[in-house]
């Protein structure tokens, strides 16, 4: 980003290619550095926050679920958010989030209301978890968000199981991904990171092989933050959640965008490593009510 432009060269290149720079300029006015009162109130209602970052030790990008009772995420000032608990010891981002100054992107998505808020900045560890100094905060429209209700109480069971790590997807994991209606994606840019959401009807993510996925890039808000980041740095982390059991499937690898006729876009993801953790989230959600925007 330069001056007051909320976009970097990667996002600008995609906006120009698709022909939406003027719309992106208009939508970009919603990006600001501060957490407004309505955003602070929204955060305190959330039982989950997804965080994305690059692990400096491995160079890999990951998206991780952070969970807790509502109130575990809260604004502690106009430019700071605190997260109680942080990432678990077995999470791929545990070491990165333990280092002061790690660039992170976060998304708070509430399936109950189809609302979502994104906040990026730099994280530092605290005695209770994490503090994130915000440098960009904004909300997105409800497109492609499936509606779910949070069922009462934490699911019975102990802490998250020991993560299962592999270099390719198992048959069960491939079926799980192919049936998903939602996933989260983390990308990085020079000095920053972003976490975003992708949704659609089951089957919108295609499993091409044990190490290859693809999905269509549906029309959105014209910002092209994710595709812009990928144009500059292909590192990506994906998070698939089982909304019933709390199992998390985290994937890291690289992603590229293919452009087709009429502005069609398809993202291709090549897997480097998969981490599956049973019981990563203590919450159980209802069956989805699919978004009317889903193609």
From TrEMBL:
Domain of life: Bacteria
Domain Pyridoxamine 5'-phosphate oxidase N-terminal, first and last residues per copy: 169-257
Matching Gene3D superfamilies: Electron Transport, Fmn-binding Protein, Chain A
A UniProt-annotated Pfam family: PNPOx_N
PANTHER family xref list: FAD-BINDING, PUTATIVE (AFU_ORTHOLOGUE AFUA_6G07600)-RELATED
Protein name in UniProt: Pyridoxamine 5'-phosphate oxidase family protein
Species name: Streptomyces spectabilis
